[in-house]
Amino acid sequence: MKKQTKLVVIVITVLVIGITFFYPRMDTFLTKKESAESAGGAASQQRSGGGQGLPVNVIEARYETFENSLNVTGTLIPNEMVNLRPEVAGLVTRIDFREGEFVKKGTPLVYLRDDELRAQFDRLNYTKKLYESQENRQKQLLEREAISQEEYDIALNQFNTNLADLRLIEAQLDKTVIVAPFDGVLGLREVSVGGVIGSADIITTIVNIDPIKIEFSIPERYANEVKVGSPVYFRSNVSTEEAVARVYAIEPNIDINTRTLKIRAESPNKNRTFLPGMFARVRLVLNVEDNAILVPSESVIPELSGYKVIVVNDGKAESRVVTIGKRTDRSVQLLSGVKPGEQVLTTGILQAREGMPLQVTQIN
């Protein structure tokens, strides 16, 4: 009896311990089992095709106008610009301009001392009258055969020499007045009244900036695609909007150091928005295609044999081999492989597999 009693006590003790340990955790075990069954059922449903498919964004292919543009950098240069210097040395007696003002062509700007030249001019002018009258008298006498031809020629030569000396003094007098060579804006003054200046001294700078010119270079492979009159679009740091210019000159040779072709274009600048020396971002339109199919660059998948895109066909993914044309910084032209109206994936490209169900969430 004692052995049976001990066995019963041991069994009861084990049952009590087991109930105490497992009963509080029974709900947790049941919950995990139900979750596993639910997950298994969902996975089975997805494998059977009952899911909504991979969510993707697409773009609908259609014909667009495609501008094949080349983006380069350039520099704004003036239409005309010179440093004004005197042709002869002299004392500055008068300055007739203000710094930064606009002047017309031929406007007198600086006067140099011309007293001695004026005196020489007056003397020659008086002598001119004497030689002119002598030439007339000698001509009348020659007609009457009262003098020889040689005597008349001497008088005529004196008169012509006097006229030449007058023109020489007039030219020297013109050099004492420095005038504006063209319409433009004057820079800062570098001389003062009373100073003696020579041909190496700069008086001021005159700049014509209407129209403004744009100088830039393009790679040699585009040399045959640019013509005089081609449109050029540019903007600088002072303007967010693009201005339009026209190519007016093309360098006839390629720079052997950079393998580029230098081009110049000009644009109206009546408001003087653009100034010489400014940095310019230039967009040169090489050609325009009216019926081009464009897709984003991220839609095109490079392969060893070429390129492909993923299109939506009956709600499923389909790989399509394409032939690409020209590129921009954002788009790629498709020459074949995709027709207008078809939807090309722009997201989910790496996750999509052939025949996988797709859910189109956004059409651009």
TrEMBL record:
- Coiled-coil region(s) at which residues? none
Keyword annotations for this protein? Membrane, Transmembrane, Transmembrane helix
* Transmembrane region(s): 7-24
InterPro entries recorded: Beta-barrel_RND_2, MdtA-like_BSH, RND_pump_MFP, YknX-like_C
The molecular function GO annotations come to: efflux transmembrane transporter activity
Q: Which residues form the Multidrug resistance protein MdtA-like barrel-sandwich hybrid domain?
A: 81-206
Give all residue intervals belonging to the YknX-like C-terminal permuted SH3-like domain: 293-359
> One Gene Ontology cellular component annotation?
efflux pump complex
Stored Pfam families: Beta-barrel_RND_2 (PF25954), BSH_RND (PF25917), YknX_C (PF25989)
| Boundaries of every CusB-like beta-barrel domain copy | 214-284
Regarding protein family, the annotation reads: Belongs to the membrane fusion protein (MFP) (TC 8.A.1) family.
Its name, as the record gives it, is Putative Co/Zn/Cd efflux system membrane fusion protein
Identify the species of origin.
Lunatimonas lonarensis
What does the record give as the organism's lineage? Bacteria, Pseudomonadati, Bacteroidota, Cytophagia, Cytophagales
